[in-house]
Amino acid sequence: MVKDTRLYDVLGVQPGVSAAELKKSYKLAALRYHPDKNGHSEASKQRFQQIADAYRVLGDERLRKIYDRYGTVDEGEVAAMAAAERRHAGGITPGDLFAHFFGDGQGLGSFAIFGESGASSARCSRVSRGPDIKHKLRCTLEELYGGKVVRLALTRTRLCTLCAGRGGSRASTCTACSGQGICSQTKRQGSLVQTWSSTCRVCSGSGTIVKDCDTCTSCGGAGYLRERKVFEVEIRPGMRAGSEVVFPGEADEVVNTPYGKEQVLPGDLAITIEEATPATRYQCRGDANLLLTELHVDLRTSLCGGTVYIEDHPSGKLIQLEIIPGELLEPGAIKCIEHLGMPHPDDPSQYGHLFIKFHVDFPKTLADSTITAIAQALDADTNVRTRTPPAAADGCEEHVLSNFHHDLDTPKRHIHNSTMRRHKRSRLATSSRSAQEDTEDEDNDCICSGGLYTDNQQDDFMMGRATAAN
């Protein structure tokens, strides 16, 4: 039963109204009393503020529950009324007993506790908020782009609605502790008197007990139940990894503590979005921009233009790009396509930009005719600048490139192919000058890094080396 209907009256609804009807009534009332439509009169401003304050409380499910129970959401007033309920019941919890001896600084005396006997305790002296329930929801980049609705089942601990958490239809005062929740013992040794107190084992500190005939049939006298609820989680288009979807007041109403089960104000259910399979080709940048880290194009298209396709865009569409002839694509060049990125989280009808980093696929080899044609075409183009050799090029040292890709981080001695070739040719030239005439009939074929040399080629090679040496 609702304790105060004042906020409901402001919005013109009944206490049992649904969230959708409450929102609808709020919009109608806000439009009706908006200051812009009432000449900015003081009465309209006050009324509009009352409507906004009422919906701020009733629109929040957790605050609405507190208001329905206590008629206010002020923390001080709620704590005072909870303390009054606590004193009226006359019970004491183990947490309150601890706080009595050691002070509230330990933070353990602020909850209502469900005892082991199954009876529910009296209301707490101070209302405390329970922990939030956090869950991670994995979504693909395509799902974050287009949005979706996910059904998520949650098992939580809630108060029994049949007995309102009391454990039964009627609670009786515990005779073992006279409703105090604690039992005191006194021991006298001569002139020394020792007194100590402990939590009542019969009522577990609640001060009340529920008879078997009055036990709640729904919760079995525990005062709470394990409940399974299905939530519909809306993933809005444009949400990013790390975004949160929060359901206020949907966490546990009863939590475990070292002193047993304690009733709390329910926390929130917070769902954090995670990317299921982090895409290697796409990266989200800024609010809604998207970077395609690698798009392959062939050499001809990068130089002469053509058509390139993006087959894995998060929208699911096949994207066709036209490379304009003359728009040369350098390896690693980054180009932009406007409004082809991710949707904006605040306005899904607006899109960010798509940035594309191009990777040019060079052929491993070219035909001689192709090389000649390309060279002639580039020489004839005035836009192409060729590098001229330096003035001292005649006396330079010649080398050739190697296709061997060694590991730069491995401390292994490596002799370049060109160096090996020079050393081997030097050995061949030296051996030819000291060779005897009777070796002409022997097999003089030899293997170099460049291939197999015949007798005539070897003689010509050695003749050239000898001439150069002279």
Tally of strands: 20
Please give the largest β-sheet: 4 strands, mixed
Oligomer: single chain
Give start-end ranges of low-pLDDT stretches.
87-93, 100-111, 115-125, 433-470
Question: Percent of residues in helical segments?
Answer: 25-40%
Strand content: 15-25%
CATH class of the domain at 129-156 and 223-278: Mainly Beta
CATH architecture of the domain at 129-156 and 223-278: Sandwich
CATH homologous superfamily annotation of the domain at 129-156 and 223-278: Urease metallochaperone UreE, N-terminal domain
Q: What name does the CATH topology of the domain at 129-156 and 223-278 carry?
A: HSP40/DNAj peptide-binding domain
What is the CA-CA span between the terminal residues?
117 Å
Overview of the structural elements:
By secondary structure, this protein is of the alpha+beta class. Among the domains are: 5-84, DnaJ domain (Helix Hairpins); 129-156 and 223-278, HSP40/DNAj peptide-binding domain (Sandwich), CATH 2.60.260.20; 282-361, HSP40/DNAj peptide-binding domain (Sandwich). The protein is built from 11 helices and 20 strands. A hairpin with a 2-residue loop joins strand 19 (446-448) and strand 20. Helix 2 (19-32) packs antiparallel against helix 3 and helix 10 crosses helix 11 (455-469).
Concise summary:
InterPro entries: DnaJ_C (IPR002939), DnaJ_domain (IPR001623), DNJA1/2-like (IPR044713), HSP40/DnaJ_pept-bd (IPR008971), HSP_DnaJ_Cys-rich_dom (IPR001305), HSP_DnaJ_Cys-rich_dom_sf (IPR036410), J_dom_sf (IPR036869). This protein has 470 residues and is an alpha+beta fold.
